[in-house]
Amino acid sequence: MPELPEVEAVRRELEPVLVPARIVSVTLNRDGLRRPFPPDFAARLTRQTVTALDRRGKYILARLASGDTLLIHLGMSGSFRIERGDPGPAPQDKHDHVVFGLASGARLVFNDPRRFGVLDLLAPGAESAVLALGPEPLDDARFDGAALARACAGSRAPLKAVLLDQRVVAGLGNIYAVEALHVARLSPRRRAATIATRDGRPRELADRLAAAIKTVLSRAIARHERPYRASRFLVYDRAGAPCPRRGCRGTVRRLVQSGRSTFYCATCQR
Ligand SMILES: [Zn+2]
Does the reported pTM lie above 0.90? Predict the structure, then answer.
């Protein structure tokens, strides 16, 4: 499932094609994806100009001249493809659910085999209530150890569960939560409240974890900019491998927490 770095990579790929771009046609090959498309979806998009392409958490937000925002979530398997020239008689992929025709002649095709994606329209002002997202992790003014400590104070949940809560920090998913906990040398099973003082101020652990989140996400974004470099995770999906931390003789273990796989080294992550 795409997380913040993957969604940001898609945003950067689409930006030169879509900003600015005028939408001249919208073809819907089904009624909806994870949920139905709004009834006036195609009408509200047709003849609109995309003025900016933003990202919030795992969402891409295409700003339209009308003031509406086209909300995009890739779900488990959503992707975009840009096609140019005559479509010809070539058979369409059966998972091409939406095709946006652009005034440039290009077509933006949304393909989503598992259909957990979302394409929706947000009226002006609706965004914060609909998305209900916490701070962007790479926004240093809004996200740091203190913000993390406030969210964790008093929580009986395991630390990893709190990191996956999009209201605490936006855009982190299973993979980068696992990676950040490893970099911070914190166990995913540690009780979240232990990174804060009793009155909700950050302990050193909170600052370390916030910094680790920023590090793993920035590195992943940079890696997507240079796709020829082999991407490799430190501990994610590496059960049984030796711990990658220099000097640690531990082994990466797999554990299931709330139905999701967690990978960590019990020797250096406490
Ligand atoms: Zn280790």
Answer: yes
